[in-house]
Amino acid sequence: MSGTIRTGELFTDDRGRVAQLHGIGIRQVGSHWYAWGEDKTAGDRFTAVACYRSTDLADWEYVGDALAAGSGDLAADRIVERPKALQRPDGRWVLIVHIDSADYSDARVGYAIADEPEGPYEYLGSERPLGNLSRDIGVYQEDGVGYLLSEDRDNGLHIYRLRPDFCGVEAVVATLRQQDRPEIGYESPTLIRHDGVYYLFGSDLTGWDLNDNKYATAPALEGPWSPWQDVAPVGSRTFDSQVSVVLPVEGAHVYIGDRWDREDLASSAPIWLPLRVEEGRAELIWRDDWSIEELKL
Question: Which residues contact residue 107 at a Cβ distance below 8 angstroms, ignoring those fewer than 6 apart?
Answer without folding.
Answer: 100, 128, 133, 134, 135, 153
